[in-house]
Amino acid sequence: MENILEASGLTKRFHGLVAVHDVSVQLRRGEILGLIGPNGAGKTTLVDMVNGTLEPNAGDLVFEGRSVRGLPAYRRAHLGIGRTFQIMKPFPGMSVLENASIGALFGTNGGERSIGRAREQARECLAFVGLGRRIAQRADALGGPDRKRLELARALAMRPRLLLLDEVMAGLNHVEIEEVIEDIKKVRDQGISILVIEHVMKAITSLSDRVFVLHHGEKIVEGSCGEVLRDPRVVEAYLGRRRR
Ligand SMILES: Nc1ncnc2c1ncn2[C@@H]1O[C@H](COP(=O)(O)OP(=O)(O)O)[C@@H](O)[C@H]1O
Ligand SMILES: [Mg+2]
C-alpha cells in the first residue's frame, strides 16, 4: 500500500529538552494510525512538525511523495494536510459558521475561492459534526465539547487528504465519544487518511488500523492495537515499573 506520509528521523529540541527524538513513522493512504503516549511524550510536538507549526531540528517529512520540510503551515494546508488543535482557540468575535468557513477558505488547493461556497462547505461540515443548529452563535459562547466539534468541522472544511486529530475527544462524555468515533469512521470512508491522538482507549481500539507509542519523545512500539496494548514497554510507560 502507498504511504501518504513518511516521517524519518524527526527530532525537535526546546532549549535543553528533546521533545521528539529521531522518530520515523509511515502512514498508509486510507489508514487510521493511532498515536498514544503519556502526557508530555511529544505527541502534539510531532503533529506540529507534520503540519508545519514547528520546524524539526532534524529529519525529513515526505507527503504524497514530496518533501514538505521547510514549507510553512499554510502551504502544507494547501497540499492537503489538515489538523485540529488540542487547545482550541476559535476566533472569538466570529460566528461558528465564520470560524468553520476559515477552514474552507484556507484549505486544500489554496482553499475555496468563493465566500458563498466556503460557507456552504462549512455548513455541511458543521451539520456533519452535529453543530448544525449553532452556526449563527458566536464561537466563544460554545462550551468545551462544542468547541471540539468546531475544531473537527473547521479541519474537515479544509477538505484534507491527511487529517491530524489531536485529542478531539478529551472532555467528551461516553455518548459524545461514540458519536465522534462514528464521525471519524465516516471521514475515513471518504478516503481521508487519519492520524489520531487519543487518551480514550476505546477510540484508539475501535478506530486504529495500527498504533504507535511515544514515550519521552521516542517511538517505543508500533503494531496492531492488540500487540501494542499488551506490550510490557507500553504498560510500563503508562503505569510505571512494577516494584519487586
Ligand atoms: N513550545 C514549547 N517550548 C518548550 N517546551 C515545550 C514546548 N512544547 C512542548 N514542550 C515540551 O515538550 C514535551 C512534549 O510536549 P507535547 O508534545 O505537548 O506532549 P504530548 O502532546 O504528548 O502531551 C513536554 O515536555 C513539553 O513540556
Ligand atoms: Mg498533546
What's a quick, concise take on this entry?
By secondary structure, the protein is α/β, with parallel strands linked by helices. Helix content is 37%, strand content 25%. The strands form two sheets. The chain has a six-stranded mixed beta sheet, with helices on both faces. The protein has a four-stranded antiparallel beta sheet with strand order 2-1-4-5, with helices on one face.
Protein traits:
single chain, 244 residues, alpha/beta, Rossmann fold, 2 domains, 6-stranded mixed beta sheet, globular, binds adenosine-5'-diphosphate, binds magnesium ion
Specify the CATH homologous superfamily of the largest domain.
P-loop containing nucleotide triphosphate hydrolases
| CATH fold descriptor of the largest domain | Rossmann fold
Number of domains: 2
Strand segment count: 10
What about the largest sheet? 6 strands, mixed
Calculate the mean pLDDT score and round it. 95
Strand order of the largest sheet: 6-7-8-3-9-10
Radius of gyration: 18 Å
Assign the CATH architecture of the largest domain.
3-Layer(aba) Sandwich
Strand content: 25-35%
CATH class of the largest domain: Alpha Beta
* Structural class computed from helices and strand pairing: alpha/beta
Shape: globular
Unreliable stretches, pLDDT < 50, 5 or more residues?
Answer: none
N-to-C span:
45 Å
Please report the number of helical segments.
9
Helix content: 25-40%
Order of helices and strands: EEEHEEHEHHHEHEHEEHH
